[in-house]
């Protein structure tokens, strides 16, 4: 095992090779180091785009485009609400944005209901 190879997802040094892929046992991320070396460091995750088709990245600000009910609560995120400093996460039930909304708190959003601000 090489000492300088780390998981690009979580930074763990405990990675192992399986065929042409490297695997991180801590976060289960798989990658090809040759493809990762050729890709730019600030690469936008494929498929994470807003309602208008603009690519989203970590730290962007977005605006909610329609009223969204908060599951398990009587609260509603109103259309036009600006959300700062989003974080892209692996989609859980289609929710691929983690954020914190003033007055509501931490929650996940679907990228199809936001537009880049």
Automatic annotation (TrEMBL):
Residues 6-32 form the Protein YjdM N-terminal domain. InterPro entries: YjdM, YjdM_C, YjdM_N. It holds the Pfam family Zn_Ribbon_YjdM. Residues 48-117 form the Protein YjdM C-terminal domain. Gene3D superfamilies: 2.20.25.10, SH3 Domains. Belongs to the YjdM family. PANTHER family: PROTEIN YJDM, PROTEIN YJDM-RELATED. This is Alkylphosphonate utilization protein.
């Amino acid at each position: 095992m090489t000492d300088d190879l780390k998981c690009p997802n979580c930074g763990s040094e405990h990675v192992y090779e399986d065929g042409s892929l490297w695997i991180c046992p801590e976060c289960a991320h798989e990658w090809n180091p040759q493809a990762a070396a050729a890709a730019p460091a600030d690469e936008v995750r494929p498929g994470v785009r807003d309602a208008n088709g603009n690519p989203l990245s970590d730290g962007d600000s977005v605006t909610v485009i329609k009223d969204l009910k908060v599951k398990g609560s009587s609260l509603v995120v109103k259309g036009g609400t600006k959300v700062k400093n989003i974080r892209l996460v692996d989609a859980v039930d289609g929710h691929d944005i983690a954020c914190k909304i003033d007055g509501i708190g931490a929650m996940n959003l679907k990228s199809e209901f936001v537009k880049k601000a």
